[in-house]
Amino acid sequence: IPIGLPYEQALTRMDSTTGRWYDCSAHMVWIGERTRQLDCAHVEFCRGLGNPIGIKISDKCDPAELVTLCQTLNPNNIPGRITIIVRMGAEKLYTNFPPLIRAIQREGLSVLWISDPVHGNTIKVESGYKTRDFEAIRAELRAFFDVHDQMGTHPGGVHLEMTGEDVTECLGGVQNINEEDLKERYHTHCDPRLNGQQALELSFLVAERMRRSMGLKPLLDDDEDDDY
Predict the structure, then answer these.
(1) Tens digit of pLDDT for each residue in 192-222?
(2) Is the pLDDT of residue 5 over 90?
């Protein structure tokens, strides 16, 4: 939705059994960081849909603004209707995320919190390639879980930009991809993606964090990921 509003409108249909409108381009559609303003056409369009709605937010999001946006898009506070996708970078997340959670809790709003640790960690290296560092992505995920632990709330999911192919578009991971490696298999036509092994590595790290938070024995025998 954040770019192709006319495309989304063309794929919107009324459900003959309920009389509600649905954007048939996807199950859940989302509003981007740059198009979530209350007077923006994207918000007005999504307000009339029956689809679940995602809202991307960065450190620029004001708590009062987020509350108003959620109430506008979900006036009946229907559980599952609103997903908030957080992208801030680790350092800003520790500072800016708690006030947003408190504001939502104070109003009793039902939302699902999801981390997007990839988009807020894009850099450009000297060779000119746009890339992302695995450790920065991991740090933001860690911060996301840390804040939820501190606030007594629940992390609802993780959104990763990835491919199953063995590309060399993001730095680091167990493959230790460096700047020189980027040119080997940099196939993306848009943003750099985690490759299959990097994505699996993150998934296992998240699984370890969740097991430990539930008091379960870690799957890994070593201590290298104790700080996750």
Answers:
(1) 999 999 999 999 999 999 888 888 887 766 5
(2) no
Tell me the backbone φ, ψ of residue 201, rounded to 5 degrees.
Answer: -60, -45
- What pLDDT score does 214 carry? 83
Residue 181 contacts residue 191 (beta carbons within 8 Å): no
Q: Catalogue the E-assigned strands of 80-145.
A: 82-86, 112-115, 122-124, 130-132
DSSP annotation string for 64-94:
HHHHHHHHHH-TT--TTSEEEEE---HHHHH
Mean pLDDT of 14-32: 94
> DSSP letter at 24?
T
The CA-based diameter of the chain, rounded to the nearest angstrom, is: 57
Those residues whose C-beta lies under 8 Å from the C-beta of residue 131, and which sit 6 or more positions away, are 122, 123, 124, 125, 169, 170, 171, 179, 182, 192
